């Protein structure tokens, strides 16, 4: 395993200053959101991370107020934002089938009575989708590719907090929170009725929203990669409860041959292959409790056998003070992630732009769905960010792409919260906004 040099952390780090993500200007007649470039810090501040402070953690939950009629998120000039689909509960993830069908995975956190009471008191309940999870997959078909699906069907239901879905040949895979299931499928199916079988057991549940299990296959479909987030913030329940967690697993399509492909990834959710390469990338939701600006979420290339720090170190070889002295060998072997995308931004979705409709700037670049913070005194995230790429590597700083989700920063009021992102066959970007029950479509203006 290659060991990252300590000084490389400073060279690679894109530090996030405590800069608000958006400033809301409100009047009785109109509301305008402007996006500040908080994903970029002054170059003089990029040389080091702030000192960790286990007493500096602040909670500020957003309050979802919903989108007013006629209002949409905001894209850069030259793009048009429209509703692609709506009126279903908690769209979390989006998958484009080989035949062009769009599959939207509906799921949300399910809280115990104790959690419901605590969340009502803390304000967390106003930031998330309440009640039982829909636990289903919806199919959308836009045959004429006019940006408006003509067909919507309940493709598969009766699941258990699904997130990742995948089609390989005549098999449809669903990653529930507790296992990977395989169903018979043929191209063009609008509904699955045959029973599935569990081909891989997975550790269920997890800290906050770490119940999500994502899926992706390699180019020849000989391997499937399964992301499994940690069951805790920083191993506070004991590492014996973190077996096969905070990992990306590699398996054969029948569920056999499991290996840990990469580890120390606190909550890897989005996964995608960098165009023109065989390099897997993931978006990682990092830990809480060390202050407003620690630890940056990140996107990174994933090295087979690589260790990325959790819970002993963060963003390279910075030892977590809560785990001091426990695993110096693992701290020393921690790899430095490629791109920091903001502390507590809840960066979950990841998709590279492989279409041909967007301006050249976006070609092969990475879009990141940032669900938004709760463990920070000033809210951050609540947008789709963009990182330019060239020759399979980052070629610029992160920037806001789809913004306007924040209605009032001071009151922490938001219209919606983006999660999964995907590139549709017509070249548009689709964005799942779970709390507003909407899939947005971002297209280059004609």
Task: State the gist of this model.
The protein is mainly beta. It has three helices and 34 strands.
Walk me through this protein's architecture:
With 446 residues, the protein is mainly beta. It has one domain (6-444): TolB, C-terminal domain (Neuraminidase), CATH 2.120.10. 5% of the residues lie in helices and 36% in strands. It is built from three helices and 34 strands. The strands form ten sheets. A five-stranded mixed β-sheet has the order 13-14-15-16-20, with no helix packed on it. The protein has a four-stranded antiparallel β-sheet with strand order 4-34-33-32, with no helix packed on it. Strand 1 and strand 2 form a beta hairpin. The longest helix has 10 residues, at 113-122. The radius of gyration is 20 Å and the shape is globular. The N and C termini lie far apart (49 Å). The model is unreliable at 1-47 (pLDDT under 50).
What coarse outline follows from CA principal-axis ratios? globular
CATH superfamily: TolB, C-terminal domain
Q: Order of strands in the sheet with the most strands?
A: 13-14-15-16-20
CATH topology: Neuraminidase
Give the strand tally: 34
Please give the CATH class. Answer: Mainly Beta
């Amino acid at each position: 395993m290659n060991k990252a040099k300590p000084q490389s952390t400073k060279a690679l780090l894109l530090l996030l200053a405590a800069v608000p993500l958006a400033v809301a200007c409100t009047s009785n007649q109109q509301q305008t959101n402007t996006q500040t470039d908080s994903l970029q810090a002054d170059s003089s501040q990029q040389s080091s991370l702030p000192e960790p402070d286990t007493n500096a953690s602040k909670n500020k939950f957003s309050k979802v107020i919903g989108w007013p009629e006629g209002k949409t998120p905001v894209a850069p000039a030259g793009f048009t934002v429209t509703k692609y689909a709506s009126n279903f509960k908690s769209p979390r993830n989006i998958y484009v089938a080989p035949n062009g069908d769009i599959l939207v995975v509906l799921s949300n956190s399910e809280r115990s009575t104790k959690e419901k009471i605590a969340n009502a008191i803390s304000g967390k309940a106003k930031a998330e989708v309440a009640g039982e999870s829909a636990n289903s997959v919806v199919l959308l078909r836009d045959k004429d590719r006019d940006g408006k699906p003509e067909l919507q069907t309940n493709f598969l239901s009766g699941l258990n907090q699904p997130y990742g879905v995948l089609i390989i040949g005549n098999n449809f895979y669903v990653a529930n929170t507790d296992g990977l299931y395989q169903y018979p499928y043929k191209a063009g199916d609008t509904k699955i009725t045959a029973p599935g079988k569990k081909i891989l057991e997975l550790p269920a549940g997890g800290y906050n929203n770490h119940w999500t299990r994502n899926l992706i296959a390699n180019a020849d479909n000989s391997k499937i990669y399964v992301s499994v987030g940690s069951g805790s913030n920083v191993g506070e329940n004991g590492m014996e409860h973190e077996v096969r967690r905070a990992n990306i697993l590699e398996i054969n399509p029948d569920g056999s041959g499991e290996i840990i492909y990469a580890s120390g990834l606190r909550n890897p959710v989005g996964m995608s292959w960098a165009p023109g390469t065989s390099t897997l990338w993931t978006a990682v939701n990092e830990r809480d409790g060390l202050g407003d600006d620690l630890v940056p979420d990140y996107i990174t290339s994933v090295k087979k056998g690589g260790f990325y720090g959790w819970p002993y170190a963060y963003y390279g070889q910075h030892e977590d003070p809560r785990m001091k002295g426990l695993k110096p060998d693992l701290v020393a072997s921690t790899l430095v992630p490629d791109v920091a995308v903001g502390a507590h931004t809840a960066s979950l979705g990841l998709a590279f732009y492989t279409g041909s409709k967007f301006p050249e700037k976006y070609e092969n670049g990475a879009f990141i769905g940032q669900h938004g913070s709760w463990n920070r005194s000033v809210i951050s995230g609540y947008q789709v960010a963009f990182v330019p790429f060239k020759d399979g590597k980052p070629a610029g700083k992160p920037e806001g792409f789809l913004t306007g989700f924040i209605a009032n920063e001071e009151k922490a009021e938001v219209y919606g919260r983006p999660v999964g992102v995907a590139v549709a066959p017509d070249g548009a970007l689709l964005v799942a906004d779970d709390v507003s029950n909407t899939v947005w479509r971002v297209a280059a203006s004609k």
